[in-house]
Amino acid sequence: MPGARMVVLDTVNDPGTPGRMGDDRFGFDEAAGTAWALDGATDVTDLRPFPNAESGAAWIAEALSARLMVPPAADETPKAYFAKALTDVCARAETSTRIPLDDLPGEARPIASGMWMHVVSGRAMFAWLGDCMALLRRGGSVTVIGSPGKAEAETVTARRLLAVSPEERLAQLQTDRRRSNANRTCFGLDPHAASNLETQAVSLEPGDTICLMSDGLYRLVSPYATHTPERFMALVADTGLSGAVAALRAFEDAPGCDMPRLKARDDACGVLLRIDAMG
């Protein structure tokens, strides 16, 4: 296909908790052919280095989402693009934090998972860190894009942490956050995380539909397993992303739901789009 353009069909950002903005963000630029879903990782300290934000998680998701409105340059690779984007986010953090970044402990340095895509020359380039996901529907088949193993590990992690005391749980969460920052496994305040970016190029066809989402929305597929990828894409085609959120909350709120969860109602965001031929 010589050329393609994306058309955004629907978006959603449901924080799960009334009265909050939440830690997820999404964005898109149809003219540039870019779209993304971001999920700030829940804070594990009470330091609040960004006092003007709802949380450190919300701050990093908002700052990165705002920066992604500047599209990549022609022929710029995803890793080069995100290295520049994270450099700019880090510079913004230095002027926004009440605690100098050099003094900020690893457990208080905010991170976010993210799935980003760029449509150009008849194909889509996907790039991600963490457990945000994408589903691409073509006809009756659906391709899963991302790192589904990270979403599937959530139940195991939750079960392990729920088995210990609150103090032990917090200590383990802080250890995990320090490890994530040290290993640069998510987007954060270290531009070198871009070197760990995972990418996948996919050829496009007119009529393809794609959903980018945070792990909160992907929970319907895993770990809840109430929907296969095919059923999920059929659901959003019929009812929009609000229908997926309704199904998510219905499962979470159902009496007797015994799925191990650290958050009873996780933030959930998504962008649903269609690929059209140019012209």
Written account of the structure:
The protein has 279 residues and is α+β, with helices and mostly antiparallel strands. The chain has one domain: PPM-type phosphatase domain (Phosphatase 2c, domain 1). Helices cover 33% and strands 26% of the residues. It has 6 helices and 10 strands. The strands form 2 sheets. It has a 5-stranded antiparallel β-sheet. It has a 5-stranded antiparallel β-sheet with strand order 2-3-4-5-8. A hairpin with a 2-residue loop joins strand 6 and strand 7. The chain is globular.
Structural class: alpha+beta
Distance between the termini: 12 Å
Order of strands across the main sheet: 1-10-9-6-7
* Major sheet summary line: 5 strands, antiparallel
Q: What do we call the CATH homologous superfamily?
A: PPM-type phosphatase domain
The chain-level mean pLDDT equals: 92
**Low-confidence blocks of residues:** none
- Measured as a percent range, the helix fraction is 25-40%
Domain count: the total is 1
- Please tally the β strands and state the result: 10
| Fraction in beta strands | 25-35%
- State the shape: globular
**What is the rounded Rg?**
18 Å
Q: Which fold does the CATH topology refer to?
A: Phosphatase 2c, domain 1
CATH top level label:
Alpha Beta
Q: What order do the SSEs take from the amino end to the carboxyl end, as H and E?
A: EEEHHEEEEHHEEHHE
Number of helices: 6
User: Any idea what the CATH architecture is?
Assistant: 4-Layer Sandwich
